Amino acid sequence: MADVRDREISIEQDHLDGVYRRLEEKIQEAEFLMRDAARRGQVGTPGALAERDAQVFRAGIHLNRLNNEFEDFLFGRIDLLLGKDGEKGPDGAYTSVEPADDAVHPDGTADIAETLHIGRIGVLDADYTPLVIDWRAPAAAPFYRSTPVEPGRVVRRRVIRSKGRQVLGVEDDLMRPELTARLAGEPLAVVGDGALMAALGQARSHTMRDIVASIQAEQDRVIRAPAASVTLVEGGPGTGKTAVALHRAAYLLYQDRRRYAGGILIVSPTPLLVSYTEGVLPSLGEEGQVAIRALGSLVDGAEATAYDPPAAARVKGSARMVQVLRRAARGALDLGAAPPARAGRDEEAGEAPEGQLDLGLPAAPAGPPERLRVVAFGRRVELDAAELGRVRRDALSGTAPVNLLRPRARRLLLDALWARSGGAGRHQDPELAAELRSGFDEDILSEDSFTAFLDAWWPELTPRAVLAAMADEKRLARWSRKVLGQGEARRVARSLSRLDPAGEGPLSVHDVALLDELEAVLGTPPRPRRKREADPLDHLTGLQELMPVREETQWERAERLAQERTEYTHVIVDEAQDLTPMQWRMVGRRGRQATWTVVGDPAQSSWSDPDEAAAAREEALGNRPRRRFTLTVNYRNPAEIAELASRVLALAMPGSPSPRAVRSTGVEPRFVVAGEPMGETVRAEAARLLETVDGTVGVVVAMERREQAARWLAGLGERVVALGSLEAKGLEYDATVVVSPAEVADESPAGLRVLYVALTRATQQLTVVSGRRDQPDADGVPDLLRDDVPPELLGE
Ligand SMILES: Nc1ncnc2c1ncn2[C@@H]1O[C@H](COP(=O)(O)OP(=O)(O)OP(=O)(O)O)[C@@H](O)[C@H]1O
């Protein structure tokens, strides 16, 4: 057996050597072309020179990646029967999925007609035969899809493990075990078993790995689903939703790079999950082509760092805030344009800015000016507070964003002053009257004092300043009347008191969605567009590689889209069950014309009103057709842990199916009752797990214990981390300690679902520590995790 293995490894080694030789040849060719181009100097057209540079660059990237980045550049192979027709695709492989009628001989033997190697990028030999097929190419699909039940043309599917230029091992699956297959006249060898299991058993690090070598058929169908419309993917914890979302982004880019480069947005719930996942795309060869952003970083210049108490978060995320924000945006006009340091917080605060004093403004307070006085045609014309109020109401009856209504307000002010001046009656002749009127307008508009008045009376509002203005409890009570309860308004106002009057200060993830809504309500007045300076290196770097038509390079397009920030071509939402209605509105604005992939698990939702969120989601996704997929296999948790978690699932969402765990370790979860102080027990358990696993250990606590837990674990090293329950979403560790299930469950209305998330983070071992609020039985199993949990213990 060892002989067979060694022989098969050396066969693959020969192939890999051939691939590297071919790549080196390509580099030499490209270098020759470059030298040649230099020799010929001016003879080549600029386009041809740029094309050569691009070739050199591309070949360089290839080799560099192969040598440095892609540890397992070549990872798969399929041996196939003859296809139904003799057609070949652009990658040189036969296209037919089904075998030819006579591919299997009557005596049950068959010849392998085609062997394909699958890798992270495609490589063609000098005669255009495929040496390596890109994993995203149609010809590679059978590598992922073929099963013994539906084998298609695949007889043997091989996973190749390599590091750098060296092949380390191979693992085979036979898809048609009933056949006696021959390859070049020799019987087809089969080595090892369980490539998937080998992948799953590996120790976890703090960053996610790609699964390109072991994508499963149900996942492959999602990854390769057509981009059009909305692809909805549901599946329990560990079913590969995040992995599938990332691989789908790479697949879409491969399919239609021109359309998607720079235009794919992946939205993740937390910065922790962003840093956990963002290495996957570069490993798939898609560095910098896709924006992965946390919900709290979707608005330029804002970065969520603060947490809201659950009760405040619930209100801030609710769609009811839309109305509150609309009123706040209009109401904030009344606060006048006090300088940022004084704007907002307190209506009584501060003096009016100096420039406004000669406009008849009250010296204090800093509210809007109460009178407008101008001189026109040598006469003084004045509008009092009541008239100004009427003009403002008229102006606000327009539907445009508040900042964009300013020109309308200015026109209505001029109309009101004109009416006041009596100028309208001076001429019967319409032409003369019109001339008089335009002279009048010009007179007023040229007055600096009028502009200063307008700035104070209809200031350009920033989202941050309006948000900060909402920190005043009385004011917010007014703006939210009949929409929020008094207690709700108070909680929101208090949570905003972190901000200074200009809105600077720590923001929560919910504040960011409010800022985005405010930006839409306020609008940004047009500013001259900044032109990107031409970079002389642009046409040397060869980054136009896949854009032969020189309209706009990928790079320029990516940069333009990032700068404009507004819209993406495809939006992928990870952990979609957690978006609040306000967050759906924010994300929806980034994909109004987009196609979508939305992955999530309702059972893991930490939002208290799933129906309200579902309605907002439907609105964001519009009426595009939906395509639904369900992932059913849990690749993360061993069966022992999955079984325990399913008890909480039964409480959190009765009747909801648990995904099937794909492996079992024989290690049952461990239950420990905390002594006093609790930290000592937790620390000891974390230390114990560090001894037993090679990779990482996550200690999940209720949000309010986050900082305390970090202190408990101080000094244990980098392999262990403390996490609040809401931060654990999407992450995984070799082993986890879940501290006090009851505390996690009690923390919010969706607490049981949050506990379900916490319990499903471990790939190998789980320890549950009961605290004071838990009621452990004789074996230390807390009440919430017993399979016979009495409903009255749920504290409902
Ligand atoms: N086909 C596969 N081959 C190897 N590993 C896989 C495969 N599918 C998923 N995994 C692994 O299983 C783990 C769980 O995947 P992932 O995080 O994508 O699941 P998820 O559905 O997003 O989970 P959750 O809902 O808990 O966030 C990851 O370590 C991932 O690499």
Strand order of the largest sheet: 4-5-3-1-6-7
Would you tell me the overall average pLDDT? 82
Low-pLDDT windows of residues: 338-365, 528-554
**Ligand identities:** adenosine-5'-triphosphate
- Overall morphology: globular
- Report the count of strand segments: 26
The biggest beta sheet is recorded as: 6 strands, mixed
Structural class: alpha/beta
Binding site for ATP: 235-242
Region (Disordered): 336-365, 770-796
GO molecular function, one term: hydrolase activity
Protein name: DNA helicase
Please give a structural write-up.
Keywords: ATP-binding, Helicase, Hydrolase, Nucleotide-binding. Residues 336-365, 770-796 are annotated as: Disordered. This protein is 38% helix and 16% strand. The chain is built from 27 helices and 26 strands. The longest helix has 39 residues, at 2-40. Bound molecules: adenosine-5'-triphosphate.
